[in-house]
Amino acid sequence: MSAALIEGWSFRQAGLMLRACLLWLLLTLGNMPVAQAAQQQYEPMADSVRLALRNVIDDTRPINPIFQNTDQRLDWLAQMSKRLAKRIPSFGERIQLIKTIRYEAQRAGLDPQLVFALIEVESNFRSDAISSAGARGLMQVMPFWTDLLSNGDARQLFEPRVNIRYGCLILRHYLDKENGNLDRALARYNGSLGSMTYPNLVYDRLDRNWRYRYVPRH
Known about the structure:
Order of helices and strands: HEHHHHEHHHH
Number of strands: 2
Helix content: 55-70%
Radius of gyration: 22 Å
Distance between the termini: 86 Å
Strand order of the largest sheet: 1-2
Structural class: mainly alpha
């Protein structure tokens, strides 16, 4: 075999190996629980604000979402369960998460459907998701919040109820900070204040997947 043929064969083999490595990398990354790069920024806050937030974090009352009536409760749970079924196959786990989202959103004075949309954008409902910025869990909470409001153990952010409570409380805090401006609060949540890219993405998911309107039965 000539040197030219050997060299050509070597280049072809190298090319095939490179393509195989790239394919493996894409498949591996595709299966990793990497989420949107939510990156709330640390900002000094008054002791009174930190204490108020900490008191909410420490509240351990049972999950008890509010509904207009029993019919709405059954309808809403059925609707949300159907929409989440492909992402969370376990019925029990799905219903528990759905109730938790509504309860924690209501406690923070947020629209539960908006929180569903935000979770989809941030983690696609993966409680073990970690972003490139280090944010964790369903609502992609940055670990520094556990230092500010709890015992500093960021592992708790992988527990769904804890994570959702943090996420809803943080968004509520930003909403108050921005005088009720949801666009700016969402952008601040994402660490992209001044841009509408992230708020528009959340609104898009809200409109596509999570809007809910209760129609009473007659």
